[in-house]
Amino acid sequence: MLNLKQIVAGYGPAQVLHGVSLDVPRGRVSALLGANGAGKTTLMRVLAGLVRPQSGSVEHEGREITALPAPRRVGLGIAMSPEGRMVFPTLTVEENLQLGAIHARARRGYRERREEMYALFPRLAERRRQTAGSMSGGEQQMLAIARALMARPDVLLLDEPTLGLAPVMVKQIFEVVQRLKEGGLTMFIAEQNVRQTLEIADHAYVLENGRVQLEGSGAALINDAGVRRAYLGM
Ligand SMILES: Nc1ncnc2c1ncn2[C@@H]1O[C@H](COP(=O)(O)OP(=O)(O)OP(=O)(O)O)[C@@H](O)[C@H]1O
Ligand SMILES: [Mg+2]
Fold it and tell me: Where are the domains of the chain?
């Protein structure tokens, strides 16, 4: 569904990605692993259209979209739950969800979609009139994912969905990812909970200093000696 070819990207003179090629195939869960600063978020932003690469190309269903701005990519069905959640703190849960559906492709059937989100995240249903900023980190993370899903994406980009969360909340987030996977949603997940991610991912890429150092099926990487040493503490 999404293909990156030889992406070089960064911020001003600081180059972060040094020629990254990878694929996010339809109906699969793909994962992006790597240490802090490896360039995972930058890569997510390239896919979402928030960072314009210096060279290389981004393709969606075989069509080049490298220069397509972020809002137009939402129209193609590409939505992101960003690192750090970035919910609107002074707005209620329901208002945050409403903003997730602001794009034309999401407006129709907005109410039904919202109820689907409340079914997926019962915690959000209980807190629909509560301001997002007054919720726990885990609840805000659920809201960030639900807000992205309000856009009716064909592919969901999840940047560190369990960052800073307690184990019980991490488990709940992974359960939601599993349910979305069973529903056939294409996902691309940057994560530091490596074991749980590899258990759920069909395919994973390991990014080191802006380059793909290793890739393989989740099962293969779980058994890779280098991955076990560097990321699983074994
Ligand atoms: N807006 C920015 N301006 C300048 N440099 C940036 C900006 N955002 C990120 N960087 C730099 O780009 C590099 C890669 O950062 P990035 O956020 O992509 O890494 P990451 O793999 O997502 O890390 P983390 O695991 O901490 O989220 C880092 O050296 C970072 O300091
Ligand atoms: Mg990041």
Answer: 2-231
What's the CATH architecture for 2-231? 3-Layer(aba) Sandwich (3.40)
Q: Give dist(CA 206, CA 117) in Å, integer.
A: 31
Give the helix, strand, coil percentages of the chain, each rounded to 5: 40, 25, 30
7, 17, 36: residue to mutate for ligand 1 pocket, most atoms within 8 A of CB = 36
Work out which ligand 1 atom sits closest to the CA atom of 39: 18
3-class DSSP state of 113: helix
Ordered per-residue pLDDT tens for the chain, 234 residues: 999 999 999 999 999 999 999 999 999 999 999 999 999 999 999 999 999 999 999 999 999 999 999 999 999 999 999 999 999 999 999 999 999 998 888 888 899 999 999 999 999 999 999 999 999 999 999 999 999 999 999 999 999 999 999 999 999 999 999 999 999 999 999 999 999 999 999 999 999 999 999 999 998 988 888 888 888 776
Q: Write the CA distances from 11 to 54, 86, 139, 174, integer angstroms.
A: 10, 21, 31, 32
